[in-house]
Amino acid sequence: MKRIGILGGTFDPPHNGHLLIANEVLHALNLDEIWFMPTNIPPHKKSADLTNNEDRVKMLSLAISNNPSFKLQRIELERDGPSYTYETMRILKEHNPDIHFYFIIGADMVEYLPNWYNIDELVKVVNFVGIKRPGFTFATKYDVTPVEAPQFDVSSSMLRKRFKERRSTMYLLPETVKHYIEEKSLYGPQAGS
pLDDT grade, residue 138 (50/70/90)? Predict the structure, then answer.
């Protein structure tokens, strides 16, 4: 049975923190691949806040292009309305019954699991993998596999702000993604160097 990790998010933009986490989980759990799954409309955000799907897919494709174990999964972009993990994973499991899925979340989300939509059914479809971070516990009644990863404190919102303010983004995201952002003026008139 194939073992696939799922890393979901808006990836607006994708950054080296996403790649680092994916790589750590891939090797720590000896997975076959990591599927990066950009959300269409996260339940907790407004779609107007997001860069369009085409640009997010292109940035993500550029970010993962040099790792053959990293793949792009577009299922949530092909569905209308808010993206609920349970619905997405149920469909993925129906189409891929021979795959064992591992859903990657940050330590902050481990504590939030009881609030996830249909969580008691979701845990029957996927194994959760939590990335350990200082200041967060793994206090949950749900089974979560902890994975240690080096701390790399970068976020997409921080990067958007840096681009808008024309501050440096060097070493925070792949150069190919940075060039695409600059070319398209995605987060401001001129990107950071």
Answer: confident
